[in-house]
Amino acid sequence: MTSMFVRGAAALVLAGVAVLVPTAAHATTDTVTRAGAATAAVAQETLRFTGSAYENSPKEAKREAERQARHSALLSGFLNEQCVLLFAESYRLAPGYYGANAAISCTR
Fold first, then answer.
1. Are 21 and 37 contacting, i.e. CB atoms less than 8 angstroms apart?
2. Rounded-to-integer distance, Cα 62 and Cα 108, Å
3. Could you read off the pLDDT of 84-107 as tens digits, one per residue?
4. Angle CA 26–31–34, to nearest 5
């Protein structure tokens, strides 16, 4: 019997919080909107893309890895100007054979 009262009280508390939370969120948004009316906040989408390659020189491998990452970004709808190279690294696999990884970050 006591557990039913506890469950009922918990349900009432949660219902009260659910009613008040949207009001508090709206008040906060309204205050921010009035305070920053001159500067509009724009939601931006940022994604990261990676590429990897195996070539005969470290420079070729890095270039190909970056090209693959940029190609993935292009397929996702990003322009080349919207992307920044985060890193490009190469490593030696065998004499005359290198691997590379590259990552780019794109924002629109």
1. no
2. 25
3. 999 999 999 999 999 999 999 999
4. 125
